[in-house]
Design a protein that fits this description.
280 residues; alpha/beta; 35% helix
């Protein structure tokens, strides 16, 4: 089953006395498979936030369809989604545990269920020892971890993370990546919205790039990043002298071929290429 299935989605925003329309999404179609980490990329103003809001059921599209696990967004379907916004705001006077429990109860859990689920979620994100500390005393990284905890406490099947590593140092970003992998290993579907190409490249199996409210590219990363007519060869036991002789007589000089694969560009380079190519 598809975790998310979007077909020909169109969304206009209207403003002013005459109701002038601005197209935010112009026929977006994409599928997110259940159990995968899917990257949603795009420059500012590309329509990512609008698409996420439609998926969350916070906005209604003008045309097209959006289904979550085969159903249109509804109260019951929303209960299967966990969401961490890009700039979350939490009540600073609450402790981490109180905050996560608060959101768990908003998702319909009983007091006992919410307590147990909150403890488990905070342990998963590495805040078990800091769960009794006020959020006002949390660092940026701890606040982001608490944000993921509140998004997963009610055990959703789909987790949407908007810039989860924003403002984190390299160590904090790597810790965040480990959490995303844990969610994937638990069988959850993760929709990752990020401007960090390295983060997406490490975590996502497939990506979609939005430009001007349309899908400019979508597919498996290993296929999108391939460069045509080029191959990459790795060798063992190869020094500089042997490297100079390798072009025609690799086998004769005793070099052992480690692997052969198609040459690829980085996701960052591919992203820039797609965006520049779609500028009008």
């Amino acid at each position: 089953m598809k975790a998310i299935s979007v077909k020909k989605l169109v969304k206009y925003y209207r403003y002013g006395v005459r109701g002038v329309g601005i197209r935010a999404l112009g026929g977006v179609s994409l599928d997110v498979e259940e159990g995968e980490v899917f990257g949603l990329l795009g420059p500012n103003g590309a329509g990512k936030s609008t698409l996420v809001k439609v998926i969350l059921g916070l906005l209604r599209q003008n045309s097209g369809t959006c289904e979550i696990f085969g159903k249109a967004p509804s109260r019951n379907v929303k209960g299967q989604i966990g969401y961490l916004p890009e700039s979350p705001y939490f009540y600073k006077f609450m402790t981490g545990f109180e905050m996560v429990k608060f959101y768990a109860k908003l998702c319909g859990m009983t007091e006992r269920e919410a307590r147990s689920a909150s403890e488990k979620a905070l342990e998963l994100v590495g805040l078990g020892d800091a769960s009794g500390r006020r959020i006002s005393l949390y660092s940026k990284g701890m606040t982001q971890r608490a944000g993921i905890a509140q998004a997963i406490a009610h055990n959703p099947k789909l987790v949407i993370l908007d810039e989860p590593a924003s403002g984190l140092d390299p160590i904090g970003a790597e810790d965040m990546a480990k959490i995303v992998r844990k969610l994937r290993d638990e069988g959850k579907t993760v929709l990752l919205c990020s401007h960090s190409m390295s983060e997406v490249e490490k975590l996502c199996s497939r990506v979609a790039i939005l430009c001007g409210g349309e899908v400019a590219a979508c597919g498996r990363l290993d296929e999108l990043l391939e460069t045509p007519d080029k191959m990459k060869i790795e060798f063992k036991n190869l020094d500089a002298q042997k490297a100079r002789k390798i072009s025609n007589y690799a086998a004769e000089i005793g070099a052992e071929t480690e692997s052969v694969s198609k040459s690829k560009i980085s996701l960052d380079e591919f992203f820039r290429k797609i965006v520049e190519g779609n500028k009008k």
